[in-house]
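Hi support team,

I submitted a single chain yesterday and got back a structure, but I'm not sure I'm reading the token output correctly. Could someone confirm the output below corresponds to the sequence I sent? I've pasted both exactly as they appear in my results page.

Thanks,
R.
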Amino acid sequence: MKFFENLSVNPKDVTDLKELIPLSIDQDEDFQRFTRLRKVKNGDPLGYFGDMDDVGIAGSGCDPTYQEVGIANSQKRWVLGDWQVPIKICYESLQGTIAEYCLKAGTEVGDISTTEFMTYILRPALERQLKRMIWRFGWFGDTAAKNIKDGGQLTADVKTELFTTADGLFKRIFAQCTSNSKQLTTIAANSEATFTAQRTTILKEGVATGIFDNMLMDADSRISADPNAVILCTKGLADALALDVKHVYKVIMPWETIFNGLDVAQYNGVTIARISLWDRFINAYESTGTALNKPYRAVYSNIDNLLVGTNADGLISDLDIWFDHKERRNYIYSTGKIGTQLLEDDMFQAAY
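Hi R., thanks for writing in. Yes, this is the structure output for that exact sequence:
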């Protein structure tokens, strides 16, 4: 493993780890602002009840005919999958790079657990990746994930174990839309055969506004009446909408950054959240090489309907970092559980 093979020891170049600038400053959206976290155990039930059967029939007077009624109810069970982050590092990976100066001297040269490299470089980078891991499992997870060459959706060289911990919310949404097609607003651009055709189609005048108009009209009236229902969508779809609004209605659609990494806007009175991390995942993990798998996606629902469960107090576990004196290696380990559920299968409208 090499960390700074392109940053050699050279007095004319960068000589301090703290002077390094991250290659890209990604403002990743906060996962828990778009889902509801539940502390549960594997196999725990998730039960709810709905409306009572209709009551009130024609007639009056003595000796009425009494009827039996029921209340809609359902129960699911949580399925939590295990994830782990096992990493080992040898100090030799830092030799000959600008990180060499932070190594200890003598017998303790191998222990980098308390060095500037761990503090300023490795630990912050790992914490960012742990947050993205939760996004990956929570939305894109698939216990049956396969690469394209094997009949799946994952890019050919992507490791399937990056996704097989749990079934994510997208898999559950896709399955429900297959079961009930009324919950799906189709986006024709996703079916195009090339990157260029997908982009060209979504940017045609009237297409993006038509998708959102249809989505709002197609949605269950209970969702439309819910003041807390929002539309979560990929950045590509949100940008297409903003451009289309400008072309069709000759107005600028204002986006407001309400906290780092999240832009929101209003369309026909409904809040739209632009989630750029979805786009980055689709580009990185779901590409055939000529086209993307559903690059334009949206989910219209109350956040309380999108559940993520774990058996701990939080989705991300503490990092266990130590130096093994026998093997002279540094180890990092973290583990946890995660699962997802839709509280009510019929309380969302999707577009893809």
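A quick pointer for reading it: The two ends are 39 Å apart (CA to CA). Let us know if anything else looks off.

Best,
Support desk
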